[in-house]
Specification:
The complex is a heterotrimer of chains A (about 500), B (about 290) and C (about 290). Chain B has about 290 residues and is of the alpha/beta class. Chain B is about 45% helix and about 20% strand. Chain C is α/β, with parallel strands linked by helices and about 290 residues long. The chains are: A alpha/beta (about 500), B alpha/beta (about 290), C alpha/beta (about 290). Chains A and B meet through helix 2, helix 4 and helix 14 of A and helix 2, helix 4 and helix 5 of B.
């Protein structure tokens, strides 16, 4: 046998991620077919707001105006609830089989116009076209398709009881996944036989009002779905209207609490899907490279504008240095820039306000002594952008470990034992999601059992499915969306 | 001077059976004559043999793993597309059913029910798991879960009446949960099943997932009964055929289910539901410790 | 390793959109990285001559680089060397009882020495999969070390035969076993091209991550060669994107990355011509194209 010379430990060597092979711009060119002005959608028609007032929707990628959006006042919200109440009896009396067909039509029509909607979503909200094309729009269509099939199977939703619709439901959705959040809210409500008054987020109203065109093409009976656009005041009117049998809110914990206070004197049913500060826990036996992908996906997908983002990395001390080093390398090949470019990984921050919030919290991290890393990247001159950011030497007492940043900022903490990981992961008022990375099955199941989170991702992250119930513990909210369990929140059990 | 009008001679269609994603004649090259309700000659339909059945089972077995691995959402979309295909050609199907003796009202109703039934089962594909599977609260420190799994190749013997709706109602639940099918169409009125084959071929359904034979029960039922690779039988059958199927099933421990529905009973909502899926899935329970 | 995670990572490479000058750069780089291959029982000196002429002058365009190497059976090395010797196109020979490796170790070594003596600049060997799957890892590594020695100054490429190793964990382990005894300028390679599963973005990713980790630990840069199954220019660009994002710029060179392929070359040329003229090309405009239709 030949003597073997084994290559063994030497100095750590660096990789070059430079501009040897620069990508040319690759803009998506499909036409989003935007209108100059979008009106309210009430009673199956586009109607002007009583006040005649509008507000602008801006493209966060370059700060240009996209369209004018109608501003709904209390009278408009009232008209919407009236239209919904009028449509409720025939809609709920319709055989489930026929009601389902409307939802199937909506799914199919959205699939037909998928690219157009993806571009519109990217322009309005700032997320990369790759995400709106490959995730937001297909997933929204899937939600409609899935829930369509429940409409004639409601006797299975709560065996032994009869699941009946509640009436008119008021819904307010956020700006991070505008079309998808719309699908999450509308589909189960309609499948169950309810009618809806919904307010999109003020910075992202366009795809909702485009969907209204699809509702017309699908010949959805007028009044079943109504969209009233506006900001905080409109939202309060929608949540507080006496015609709502139930309200559903997805947004920040702060606003969720305000709504709960607003409705404290009523019996209104409600579901809340609020903020999070998820722990992504990586053990020393984790598949490390895949864990790094999961961490990156967990915090940089959609620029970190995700309630279930893995914004805290809890890494096992034996592999901390290795994981952090790989993370730095991985960040160096993330492409930040024009959301409409097909190669962009991180798009624009949704608004000037949100960018300000991120900057303030990042500054607090630096001030409080955490160590910041940002890869070199050229940010566009106009528009709202923030580079992917890592903080190491973070502890549970740092603000950046406690407060939801809602941006592309990862706080990295370490742990020594499983028990410590569980303690740290649960040490938060939030409880929406968590990640666990380990090769050991029994440990996955233990972590899943003991983590106080409504969604646990093991050896993966940010996975969603219409059939998989989603929602949080503690201040991340209550109620679930998706699956058989999600339908229960839109039903009255007789 | 005007020329007299010439009657255009229509081009008749050669019916072929849909096996393995292709349209073929019987390997025996035999056919049998089919006449319409008025007694006029309609077409020569393939008279399938047990070798055709054997080939169909092989095609179904080959298509099986891929079909079972498709996501439930994907299967749902394909079933929905099949409904789209049928709806688009419902006029043709109704005409065909009437030509073979159905009352117009029954044919039209059967068509609507058939399309809606496909949509019903499309809607089950990504839901039955939550109802038939479970996480079980065992007394030890184990995570214990039960999931369903398709059985494999399922043989279907369709009724004579209604010839299209019956076949549709039986094959939809079976493929919704990931099985593949070898079906024997109605012996008396096989032509609608030939048309159904064309619609299956245009619905994004992978070849081999559904295979439809035409021919005589007395020639084919014995092989349905005894072919060991067919894991389950779903049949509309009289007492003699039932006995033959049960006897043959015993040799390979096939699961056997019969339907008692006849004629207009197939129109009712009670002719569809979760039970038709439950009968064609296996249940698998897994244990794993919970700990560090 | 987690298979699903790897597949998801490589799926993102396929969503990159490469256009215009970036595309042309990628295509020409892929040409320069090609090990133009013929490994058939029916190879003759005439076939080798045809292959070598193509390697030296892929197309009627002076801007197209030559390929990196021709890859042939040991019996054909002399003929290849006579034609491309001194040109910059290397002669790579398979050896060690390619593709199965199922013969005595001394025979495998003798074959390597014979190919090198005939003028091979590079040797593509196969590892002992039987020993690997039985857990005899030291033996697998020792055999590779012996082949390194038999190569002398010729570069060595170690074929893991990923389809037989099956799991990503095995492929990663085998990569480290090989790299532990390789020299800078040597390569690890996915497959012989003689089984039904060859190079994929996923197994390429497993191996380049191993190369990356080995480099960051030891400073030794080992090359990578995916072989078999890469037929289109579009696929080859996806592999290059994987390299760009995993190993970085230093590996975007024929010195550290090769494509083991045959029909890929003409598809690269076809796409380069399309970028140049704006018109889609027919296959028969390119020498040695198989398609008549």
């Amino acid at each position: 046998m030949a003597a073997t010379r084994k290559n063994s430990g030497g100095p750590r060597s660096g990789l070059i991620f430079g501009d040897l092979w620069e990508f040319d711009p690759a803009p998506e060119t499909a036409d989003p077919k935007l209108k100059a002005r979008y009106d309210l959608f009430i009673g199956g028609r586009f109607v002007r707001p009583r006040s005649g007032r509008t507000f602008d929707s801006v493209n966060p990628a370059n700060e240009t105006k996209l369209a004018e959006i109608a501003l709904a006042g209390p009278a408009d919200v009232d008209a919407a609830y009236k239209a919904a109440a009028g449509a409720f009896r025939p809609w709920s009396a319709m055989p489930g089989r026929e009601r389902g067909k409307y939802l199937y039509r909506i799914a199919r029509l959205l699939q037909d116009r998928a690219r157009e909607f993806a571009v519109a979503e990217t322009l309005d909200g700032g997320k990369p076209i790759r995400e709106s094309r490959d995730f937001d729009v297909p997933m929204a269509a899937a939600h409609f398709f899935y829930h369509a099939g429940w409409a004639d199977k409601l006797e299975y939703v709560a065996p032994g009881r009869v699941a009946q619709p509640l009436g008119v439901v008021g819904q307010v959705i956020p700006w991070n996944f505008p079309l998808l959040m719309l699908a999450w809210k509308l589909a189960p409500a309609l499948a169950m036989g309810n009618c809806v008054v919904l307010k999109p987020a003020e910075t992202t109203s366009i795809t909702a009002l485009k969907l209204a065109e699809i509702l017309q093409d699908a010949e959805l009976p007028p009044g079943v779905v109504n969209f009233v656009t506006g900001a905080g005041e409109t939202g309060a009117a929608v949540m507080g209207h006496p015609g709502a049998a139930k309200v559903a809110f997805t947004g920040s914990t702060e606003v969720g609490k305000a709504i709960m206070r607003q409705l404290a004197g009523t019996d209104r049913k409600m579901t809340m899907e609020l903020g999070g500060k998820a722990a992504n826990v990586v053990f020393d036996d984790a598949p490390i490279d895949q864990a790094v992908e999961g961490i990156v996906n967990g915090i940089f997908f959609n620029q970190g504008h995700v309630c279930c983002a893995g914004s805290r990395l809890l890494v096992h001390e034996p592999v901390a240095e290795q994981v952090i080093s790989k993370l730095r390398n991985r960040l160096r090949v993330l492409r930040v820039g024009d959301p409409l470019d097909k190669n962009t990984d991180l798009g624009a921050i949704n608004s000037r306000e949100q960018l300000g919030r991120i900057r303030r919290l990042v500054a607090s991290g630096v001030r409080e002594g955490a160590l910041m890393y940002q890869p070199p990247c050229r940010l566009p001159e106009r528009g709202f952008y923030f580079p992917p950011t890592l903080f190491t030497r973070v502890t549970q007492s740092h603000r950046i470990a406690r407060e939801e940043i809602f941006g592309p900022v990862l706080s990295i903490l370490t742990f020594r034992t499983v028990d410590e990981a569980i303690e740290k992961a649960n040490n938060t008022p939030y409880g929406l999601s968590a990640g666990v990375w380990t090769d050991k099955g029994s440990r996955i199941l233990r972590m899943s059992t003991e983590l106080k989170a409504g969604v646990v991702w093991a050896n993966t992250f940010n996975k969603f499915d219409p059939s998989s119930p989603f929602g949080g513990y503690k201040e991340s909210g209550f109620g679930r969306e998706g699956g058989r369990q999600g339908l229960l929140d839109y039903a009255h059990l007789a | 001077m005007s020329t007299p009008a010439v009657n255009r001679i229509p081009v008749t269609k050669t019916p072929k059976v849909y096996i393995g994603g292709a349209f073929v004649r019987s390997e025996s090259a035999r056919t049998f004559k089919v006449s319409d309700a008025a007694g006029a000659f309609f077409a020569n339909i393939p008279q399938c043999t047990r070798k055709d059945l054997r080939n169909a089972v092989e095609a179904a077995a080959k298509a099986g793993p891929g079909w079972a691995k498709r996501s439930p959402y994907n299967r749902a979309q394909i079933l929905y597309r099949l409904a789209e295909m049928l709806e688009a050609r419902s006029g043709e199907l109704v005409t065909s059913l009437v030509r073979f003796g159905a009352r117009e009202a029954d044919a039209a109703r059967g068509m609507s029910v058939g399309v809606d039934r496909l949509i019903h089962y499309a809607g089950w594909a990504d839901k039955y798991e939550q109802l038939l599977g479970s996480v079980n609260p065992v007394a030890s420190a184990h995570f214990n879960f039960t999931v369903t799994e398709p059985m494999g190749v399922v043989g279907i013997i369709a009724p004579d009446s209604p010839p299209l709706l019956g076949l549709l109602s039986m094959l939809a639940p079976v493929i919704a949960c990931g099985n593949t099918v070898v079906a024997l169409a109605s012996e008396k009125t096989p032509y609608p099943a030939i048309l159904l084959g064309e619609m299956l071929a245009t619905s994004d359904l992978p070849g081999g997932v559904v295979n439809i034979l035409t021919g005589f029960r007395r020639e084919l039922v014995p092989t349905f009964a005894t072919h060991a690779h067919i894991r389950a039988i779903y049949a509309s059958a009289g007492a003699d055929d039932r006995k033959a199927l049960r006897l043959g099933a015993a040799a390979s421990v096939k699961r056997v289910r019969f339907t008692d529905l006849a004629g207009r009973e197939w129109f009712s909502d009670s002719a569809q539901g979760l039970e038709a899926i439950r009968d064609f899935v296996e249940l698998k329970t897994t244990w794993h410790p919970i700990g560090s | 390793m987690d298979q699903v995670g790897v597949e998801e990572r490589v799926a993102t490479f396929a969503t990159r959109s490469i256009k215009k000058s970036a595309k042309v750069w990628g295509l020409k780089t892929a040409v320069s990285m090609t090990d133009l291959t013929t490994l058939e029982g029916k190879d003759t000196p005439g076939k080798i001559e045809s292959l070598c002429r193509k390697a030296l002058r892929p197309h009627d365009d002076p801007d197209i680089p030559t390929v990196a190497a021709v890859c042939v059976y040991p019996a054909m090395v002399r003929h290849a060397k006579a034609l491309v010797g001194g040109s910059g196109v290397k002669v790579a020979s398979v050896a060690t009882a390619f593709p199965s490796g199922q013969t005595h170790y001394r025979t495998r070594l003798a074959e390597v020495r014979g190919a090198v003596a005939d003028g091979a600049d590079e040797v593509d060997m196969v590892i002992n999969r039987g020993a690997f799957l039985s857990g005899e890892y030291a033996r697998v590594q020792d055999e590779i070390a012996g082949v390194v020695e038999a190569c002398g100054s010729a570069a060595l490429k170690v074929i893991l035969e990923v389809s037989e190793l099956e799991t990503f964990d095995n492929i990663r382990m085998a990569s480290f076993l090989a790299m532990g005894v390789l020299r800078p300028g040597d390569f690890i390679k996915t497959s012989t091209g003689k089984t039904t599963l060859n190079a994929t973005l996923a197994n390429n990713q497993v191996m380049i991550e191993a190369i990356r980790d080995f480099y960051t630990d030891t400073g030794i840069a080992i090359g990578m060669k995916p072989a078999g199954g890469i037929k289109t220019a579009k696929q080859s660009l996806q592999f290059l994107i994987a390299v760009k994002e995993t190993l970085g710029d230093a590996w975007l060179t024929r010195k550290r990355y090769r494509f083991g392929a045959s029909s890929l070359l003409n598809d690269l040329l076809r796409q380069i011509e399309k970028e140049k003229t704006g018109a889609y090309q027919a296959p028969y405009y390119f020498s040695d194209a198989a398609e008549s239709y």
